[in-house]
Amino acid sequence: VQLQASGGGLVQPGGSLRLSCATSGLLVSDMYMRWYRQAPGKQRELVAGIASDGATYYAGSVKGRFTISRHNGKNTMYLQMNSLKPGDTGVYYCNAGDVLWGQGTLVTVSS
């Protein structure tokens, strides 16, 4: 089983990024998939989640700016991040079923 996060980078405040979490060995449609992030010097925090029935969850700090989704045919999860703020800076990790982790992708929001 593998989860491969990608799509991070350097973006100016107000910009957008789309993160991807490509998976193998599991079905994203069958699992609760989550995005976490860890800012420098802080604990890892839950950003968004998507259930097998499509129900979504967002942390208050990203609600209205981030959108979690998945493509069942590609077995891939996404996180569309708009109106990015410096406080969104961190390493973003994808998670499957609360037990399987990807390697993380760095997002830096800075002018």
Description:
It contains no helices and 11 strands. The N and C termini lie far apart (37 Å). The relative contact order is 0.33. Helices cover 0% and strands 51% of the residues. The radius of gyration is 13 Å and the shape is globular. Strands 2, 4, 5, 6, 9, 10 and 11 form a 7-stranded mixed sheet that branches. The model has no long low-confidence stretch (mean pLDDT 96). The chain has strands at residues 2-6, 9-11, 17-24, 33-38, 45-50, 56-58, 66-71, 76-81, 90-96, 100-101, 105-109. It has 111 residues and is mostly beta strands. β5 and β6 form a beta hairpin.
Q: Roughly how many Å apart are the termini?
A: 37 Å
Q: Give the helix proportion (percent range).
A: under 10%
- Which sheet architecture does the biggest sheet show? 7 strands, mixed
Radius of gyration in whole Å, from Cα?
13 Å
Number of strands: 11
How would you describe the shape?
globular
The string of secondary-structure elements, in order, is: EEEEEEEEEEE
**Mean of residue pLDDT values:** 96
Helix-and-strand structural type: mainly beta
Poorly predicted segments? none
Strand content: over 45%
Secondary structure tally, helices? 0
Labels describing this entry:
111 residues; mainly beta; 51% strand
Briefly characterize the structure.
With 111 residues, this protein is mainly beta. It is 0% helix and 51% strand.
Secondary structure blueprint with pairings:
Elements (H helix, E strand, L loop, with lengths): L1 E5 L2 E3 L5 E8 L8 E6 L6 E6 L5 E3 L7 E6 L4 E6 L8 E7 L3 E2 L3 E5 L2
Parallel strand pairs: 2-11
Antiparallel strand pairs: 1-3, 3-8, 4-5, 4-9, 5-6, 7-8, 9-10, 9-11
